[in-house]
Amino acid sequence: MSPGAVWGGMAGLGLGAGLWLLWAAGRARRPNLVERLEPYLRPRTSASGLLQEEAARRAGPLRLLVQLMALPAVAARLERLGSPAGSLCRRLDRAGRGESVEHFRARQLTWSVLGLAAGLGVAILLAGARSAPAVVLGALVVLGGTLGYVACDQSLAWRVRRREERMLAEFPTIADLLALAVAAGEGPAAALDRVAHGTTGELSRELTGVVWAVRAGAAVPDALSAMSARTGCVPLSRFADAVAVALERGTPLAGVLQAQAQDVREAGRRALMESGGRREIAMLVPVVFLILPVTVMFAVFPSLAALRVGF
């Protein structure tokens, strides 16, 4: 394969990307009069400025990419292929990314373009070697873009799962610290503030958001319920419901927190036992298919060699 064919393919890819960006920028819809006046006429949000600053800080360097790609028009097309915007927004909250749906669509589009580029590179190499028909080469390009699109979505699911595992591992310690703070005479809001500033981790960051919401005027049960809905963890949902019921009925909060921590520890112990049982079964695969045949060969081969010498 000549270097000219490779450079020609790369130049064609760059030209296609540039023409696509020009087409997307030309199709970007200009705001009408209602959309231009809406920011000045709609009611102002009552959320805390600390939360807005934190969300703006986590937005990342993709803001310029969103503006360059005219992403609102592209996101509507990508939404037909993937999950809806509402479900994606909940998954982003559960992952703790602090980014908008548009920014994730920009990342998804970037991964798809990189997959297309990788598929095109492989197709160019195969075309230079003349070892595949044109249909297979086109399928490789489409497969590369599809794999990039799916890989971005799967990476988000992996981040959600890892974050939930870390929060569940941190929850018993956090609940015990809250129980100690409440038993020492502090109120629920003060206990949350103390534990959030004295610990680190994913759950501590969520508790920091709860403290900010309480300082902005929200009630402690409402802020905890919002945190449980945002994270999507069942133990945290039970924890928020138990704290809300304890505050409404006057139940001793320290005992409730200790009971929640004990329940999470028992659930973690059961999950560990189930994982150990699955790993024990999985360990039989190398034993049966690798170690056992080699052992049989070592046991049988000397006998076969002796029989061959005898004959």
UniProtKB/TrEMBL annotation:
Residue span, Type II secretion system protein GspF domain: 175-299
Membrane topology annotation: Multi-pass membrane protein
Spans through the membrane: 6-26, 109-128, 134-152, 281-301
Subcellular location: Cell membrane
The entry's keywords: Cell membrane, Membrane, Transmembrane, Transmembrane helix
InterPro entries to which the protein is assigned, alphabetical: T2SS_GspF_dom
PANTHER family recorded: INTEGRAL MEMBRANE PROTEIN-RELATED, PILUS ASSEMBLE PROTEIN
Name assigned to this protein: Pilus assembly protein TadB
